[in-house]
Amino acid sequence: MRIDLHTHSTASDGTDTPAELVRGAAAAGLDVVALTDHDTVGGHAEARAALPAGLTLVTGAELSCRLDGVSLHMLAYLFDPEEPELARERELVRDDRVPRARAMVAKLRELGVPLTWEQVARIAGDGAVGRPHIATALVDLGVVGSVSDAFTSEWLAGDGRAYVEKHELDPFDAIRLVKAAGGVTVFAHPLAVKRGSCVPESAIAALAAAGLDGIEVDHMDHDEPTRARLRDLAADLGLLTTGSSDYHGSRKTCRLGEYTTDPEIYGEIVRRATGAFPVPGTGG
Question: What phi and psi values does residue 105 have, to the nearest 5 degrees?
Answer without folding.
Answer: -60, -45
